[in-house]
């Protein structure tokens, strides 16, 4: 097993050195990412008093990852996804264009003090695919991503709202949800209210797992396990970035169903 694979499966993430094919993709895709930021149709994603552009599915790439003639996504990380995760010939989702600015996170108008504090003190830590629904905002499993791929698009300071993971938390999540869903058919998992077990698993991860901030430069990428607890840190007091802010494109393709989401490595 490669060092990348050992790191990924034990800690829940790994980082890849600069790759010329990804640099070429960034060169072609960056104008499209900038255009998404200023597209009036995407203005709803500017949040927290203008300190974060969430940019969900804002990049206009196709199912091969091609945007603006960039060609499909290629490189060592793509080879790793195929060889180690067994994921090939899937459809790439439209990437999130996540852009942070100095001051993140300022409070949202009308939000509770608890939610603002959680975002500030716990990096808004979450597991993707567990969506809040209904008046009581109860958690349900609705999306089954294969992984999280982060592609930095520009240079920025390591303290400029880095991506954060709790190492090893993917196995805590797996264990807790395997127990919760043990007697339930996978096709019914989405109908289950998993709020309590999810909150308990988060607290266990906070208590037992090391919080790690991940920084990468354009051409470098990081890959996170689909079950890992992760978030985005506050903008550091001395952090600097260019006019594009801290811009990262995230891909989270839906590659399988609930059974594989929980039990695949």
Q: Order of SSEs, N→C?
A: HEHEEHEHEEEEHHEEEEH
> Which oligomerization state do the chains in this entry correspond to?
single chain
> Can you identify the CATH class?
Mainly Beta
The amount of helix comes to 25-40%
- The structural domain count equals 1
Gyration radius (Cα, Å) is 18 Å
Chain-averaged pLDDT: 96
Provide the spatial order of strands within the biggest beta sheet.
1-10-7-12-4-3-2
Low-confidence stretches: none
Shape category: globular
The count of DSSP E runs of length 2 or more, i.e. the number of strands, is 12
Derived structural class: alpha+beta
Strand content: 15-25%
Tell me the distance between the termini: 14 Å
How many helices? 7
Major sheet summary line:
7 strands, antiparallel
- CATH arch. level architecture: Sandwich
CATH fold title: Jelly Rolls
Task: Describe this entry's structure for a reader.
- The protein has about 260 residues and is of the alpha+beta class.
- It has one domain: Sandwich (Jelly Rolls).
- It is built from seven helices and twelve strands.
- The chain has helices at about 5-10, 20-35, 75-85, 115-120, 170-180, 195-210, 260-265, and strands at about 15, 45, 50-55, 95-100, 130-135, 140, 150, 165, 210-215, 220-225, 230, 245-250.
- It has a seven-stranded antiparallel β-sheet. A three-stranded antiparallel β-sheet has the order 9-8-11, with no helix packed on it.
- α5 (about 170-180) packs antiparallel against α6 (about 195-210).
- The radius of gyration is 18 Å and the shape is globular.
